[in-house]
């Protein structure tokens, strides 16, 4: 039975800038946001919309996993929602049988966006403490924090 865990974060970045970084340019931006973790992101199949398949390659020794293959399961530009389902490697290698993260963005102010995160997961047996969604959500929130810092500071430095 699929279970859900929800959390949220407020980022001091405008909605459209954040949406572009999170849903459209993540292949380029992801490795820049967490350069010591993500080696690269490769497009395997698709055009960036629903059904697109990507591989996130991680640096050795950073994590017990070397890669994670994900499929864009949801993509809605009107509601600013994207859902990424792990289809191979990653958390599926650590005891989960299903893992999907959905991000839904809502503008709070001109330069402030609320990000609602929903993690849907399932497992066939007891999972270890390190892959429980309360723990995995910490890595998602860490990424959002680093993304905010990158968009506010790092992206400017890259363009100099």
TrEMBL record:
One GO MF term attached to the UniProt entry: signaling receptor activity
Keyword NADP: no
Highest taxon in the source lineage: Eukaryota
Assigned protein family: Belongs to the BetVI family.
Domain Bet v I/Major latex protein, first and last residues per copy: 31-153
Coiled coil (UniProt feature): none
Cellular component GO terms, alphabetical: cytoplasm; nucleus
Pfam families in the record: Bet_v_1
Presence of keyword Transmembrane helix: no
GO biological process: abscisic acid-activated signaling pathway; defense response
Name of the protein in question: Phytohormone-binding protein-like
PANTHER family reported in the protein's UniProt record: OS08G0374000 PROTEIN-RELATED, PHYTOHORMONE-BINDING PROTEIN
Gene it is expressed from: LOC101508211
Sorted UniProt keywords: Pathogenesis-related protein, Plant defense
CDD domains on file: Bet_v1-like
